[in-house]
Structures are given as structure tokens and as C-alpha cells.
User: Fold this.
Amino acid sequence: MNKYFKNIPTITYEGKKSKNPLAFKYYNPTEKIGDKTMEEHLRFSMAYWHTLTAEGTDPFGAGTMLRDWDHLENNPMDLAKARAEAGFELMKKLNIPFFCFHDADIAPAGKDLAESNKNLDIIAEHIKGLMQETGIKLLWGTANAFSHPRYMHGAATSCNADVFAYAAAQVKKAMEITKDLGGENYVFWGGREGYETLLNTNMKLELDNLARFLHMAVDYAKEIGFTGQFLIEPKPKEPTKHQYDFDVATVYSFLKAHQLDPYFKMNIEANHATLAGHTFQHELHVARIHGILGSVDANQGDPLLGWDTDQFPTNIYDTTLAMYEILKNGGLYKGGLNFDAKVRRGSFEPIDLVYAHIAGMDTFAKGLKVAYSLLESQVLENFIEKRYSSFDHGIGQDIINRKVGFKELEQYALKHSVISNESGRQEMLESILNQYILEA
Ligand code: XUL
Ligand code: CO
Assistant:
């Protein structure tokens, strides 16, 4: 496998003193961090769409990317096969153990659904061969039910029942392929499941239909014996003004309200979290405390642009706090860290894809190391435990055990109306965090 990234060697770990841009400085796959290797902790995945199909277009201009498979443009099936081969060569050279795809990324659409499905079968078979040859596995599959014009009003939340049916057929096929390729998860990102204006929207029907759609998916997974984890990927806006899967808390209450909560976990994307006005850590934390942290789309946004820029993660502060939540979750289990990230329009050469993944992998590896030592020290845990210690005894314990109600609490407050509080020590804790980042 040395055809599409010819001048790129296999990327190895050289340690933090290395000045070689084509080497890992922190990601050392076999290094043990606690009882797992870095590779087992991080479970990196390449996103097929950004890495293999994105052309570098933006709303102001044409594509810029130079790719060695471009000349196959007029033969879509050959192009799809070449892209798959290029993808596996790149993953192999970067030591990335997983990949993720949408149906539309891997195979061209046919003239109708039947032909599209046939194309998918042919390319999936090709990918299966590459998986066997390389040992690279499928983290998750999904269906692109948002790009085609038929999805202009949404898919499962479209006002048009024919569109609902088409989306169901597409997801059915994508689930079958994911199962066939041994996918460990299946993702639902509500591409256009939302609205532009309430003036033309029956929100109640749309939400109920979304629940119906997800129940049908659960039923079908049982029917075909797909045991992968179902994941929902929250996002507050883009492409619609309001996306129904706004954030983790919104999705969680939607799942509960529709008795879907036993079947779904969250795929949390950093840039979606910030679009929702949250930090990446906040979304991971909310998912963790509810036991629904499933997988991660590892990227970052740009606070000055404010839209879903899908950049490669290079912010050590964010990856540290992300890995801290993931470690506290006991890991990602079937999930992984999928680079839902694209190189910038100006980074148009194939080698930029290599630099980008090295940057993301090293940044998460460093974050893992810092988070592990932070957790090992228990410095935050001890502080938090002490901060809430008033609930360990006395009236606090009675509140926890629901031994008291408003009347008893009033009696208590009447006797204890002079209250003393303690400092939250935010700045001290922030400087401790910085110290761990600098030391690890
Ligand atoms: C879009 C996005 C998607 C999902 C998969 O913002 O993140 O690529 O990850 O459909
Ligand atoms: Co994503």
C-alpha cells in the first residue's frame, strides 16, 4: 500500500524531543497509561468524508484540494474504489485503527434507490477486503439523509411522508452495511431534522415522527441481529436554524419522553458543543453523569468564526478536560475518537492530511497523559468532595435521605440563619490544572 501517499513514510513515535514533523511526539500506541495502552484508550478513527471526499469548497469558492484520485472523476465507481484504497493506505501509515463513513461517502448515488444500493454493496465488498488486509476496523456507519435535495425539509422530520419512507430505506441499508462490516456503533446525526420557521412547522408531529423513526431503527436492529451501539450526535444549529437534537440534555429528555433511552448513547462533537453555547467538557460531563457517553467526534471550532469549522483538535486544554471526562467514564467502550475534522482550504496538499492527523493524535495523547495524572492525584476529586461535605452528615444527610421536608427545613433555618460559606478557589484550581498540563 504505497500509491496515493507515496512520499509519506509510516509515522512512528519519536518522543517529545523530536523535531521531525512526520513523527508522533506524544502518541505512543503501545505505551501503558494505567492498565490500558494509549491505543486502547484513544481508539482513533478517520472520518471518510472530510479526509477522502472533501474538496475544500466553502460558500465563497470552488474546491482547492489536490488528490491523486481526482483523475477518476468521470468514472464514479473507480473513483470510489481508489478513495477507499487511499484511505486505508493513509490509516495504515498513521496507525489509525478505525474509520467512520456515511453511505454517500463510500459509493456514488445511482439513478434510483435500487442502483444506489447496488453500488453500496460493490464498494462495501471492496472495503471489506481492505479491512481484512489491514486489520483496520469500522467504528461506525451512518446514512447521509441531508445532502440530496429530497431532504430539503428534513428526513424523519420532513412534512412529506415519501421522504420519511426514503430516509427509512436509506438508513436500513446503511445499518445492514455497518453490520456486515462489523461496525461497533451506528450514528444518527439529524442532518436537517429541525426547522427554519415555526410559521410552517408542526413541531409536535415532527418530533413524534422522529421518535417513530428511531423506534423503527431499534426494531430493525433486533430483527437483523445488529448488536452495535446506537448513537445520537447532538448539534444545535446548522444546517437548520434550530436542530431538534440541540444538545445532550435536550436529546436525553427526548429519548426519555419517547421510551428510547435504553437504546441510545451520545456521540459528542466538540464543535457542536461550542455551537450550543457549551464547552466540550460540559457535553461530555452531562452525558457521563447520565451513563450515555458513547463516542466522540474529535475536532474543534474557531471562537472568532462561530460556525462548524470542523478543525483538527490542537487545543491541549480542551483535550485534557475531554480525556478527564472519558477516563472518569471508564473509557469509551465501543466508542472512539473520530476525527470529524477537515484540513483548511489552504492546506490543499495530501501531506497536510498527514500533518493534521498527527496534530490531532498527539494533542489527544498529551491530553490523556495529563488527565491520567490529574485523576491519579485526585486533586480535583478531593477538593470537590470536601466542597460538598455538608451533605455527608447532619441536615445535609437528612436532605439526601429525604428525611426532611420544607417544614423541618424551615425549623432548621430558623435556628441556623447565620450562614458561613467557603471559597470555590476557581483560580487556584485553574493554576493546578495548568501545572499538570506543563508537567505531563
Ligand atoms: C455534521 C457532522 C456529521 C456527523 C455524521 O456537523 O458532524 O458529519 O458526524 O453525520
Ligand atoms: Co460529527
In short: The chain has 16 helices and twelve strands. Residues 206 and 302 are 32 Å apart (CA to CA). The longest helix spans residues 350-377.
